[in-house]
Write the structure tokens for this entry.
Amino acid sequence: MYLKAVQLRNIDQVPSIKDEVSRNMIVILRITPLAQKNIQDLKQTVEELYGFVSSIGGDIARLGDERVILTPPGVKVWRGIN
Amino acid sequence: MYLKAVQLRNIDQVPSIKDEVSRNMIVILRITPLAQKNIQDLKQTVEELYGFVSSIGGDIARLGDERVILTPPGVKVWRGIN
């Protein structure tokens, strides 16, 4: 299994991000580049990825102000104490 | 498998971080709190974790300025193009 850090610059990256999560990759998406360019596109991107990851049984979570974590099925983001 | 975000505040956290990676968790360590407090402790912590993760066949990589990713065996940090 791979963990990949990706810079999100454009809404056109959505299909390739979905493809990577489908191929069992954990994707850590730095959303700042798109956030600074087009907040509407960012919102749509995050909504699409949220729906996609939920539909395949993966997980999605914020990591600080700049990043979103996407996981394939079988990897969950820890939300416990500590 | 879980992915856990951890704030590194103290060198005393090293044993519990090692334990979590040993128990097959991916740990994303935000190093800034310790970096602002004691840079020598941070250096020693990262060296210890580097050695530990290498010894068990996991992986370690920086994520931006503030974070370090630690993975258990079987999860590698993608270092290819894109």
Summary: The mean pLDDT of chain B is 96. The radius of gyration of chain B is 12 Å.
